[in-house]
């Protein structure tokens, strides 16, 4: 377990957009429940990148890619459902941005 470092994500996004949008314009908050449901198709606390309604870029913490085992758990689309997946398969399937988030 680790604590999310939103500043690292903000810096990554700033670099990704080639500094076109000022850092102070980035707002690292969760989307409102209604908007999240509309974009993802999943209810609050059930959001996962697997099967989303909208093609939203995925960011994975660099630390997950460095775990001893090639395996991690992620949300399964329901509040009480989790999916276990090989990290290598996830990286191949979703081509996420790997960012130091913690």
TrEMBL record:
It comes from the Eukaryota. Residues 27-90 form the YbaK/aminoacyl-tRNA synthetase-associated domain. Coiled coil: none annotated. InterPro entries: YbaK/aa-tRNA-synt-asso_dom_sf, YbaK/aa-tRNA-synth-assoc-dom. GO terms for molecular function: aminoacyl-tRNA deacylase activity. This is YbaK/aminoacyl-tRNA synthetase-associated domain-containing protein. It comes from Aegilops tauschii subsp. strangulata (Goatgrass).
């Amino acid at each position: 377990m680790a604590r999310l470092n939103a500043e690292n994500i903000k810096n990554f996004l700033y670099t990704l957009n080639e500094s076109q949008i000022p850092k102070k314009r980035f707002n690292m908050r969760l989307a409102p429940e209604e908007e999240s449901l509309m974009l993802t198709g999943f209810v609050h606390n059930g959001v996962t990148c697997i099967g989303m309604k909208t093609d939203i870029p995925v960011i994975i913490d660099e630390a997950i890619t460095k775990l001893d085992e090639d395996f991690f758990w992620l949300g399964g689309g329901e509040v009480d459902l989790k999916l276990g997946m090989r990290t290598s398969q996830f990286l191949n399937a979703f081509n996420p941005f790997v960012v130091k988030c913690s």
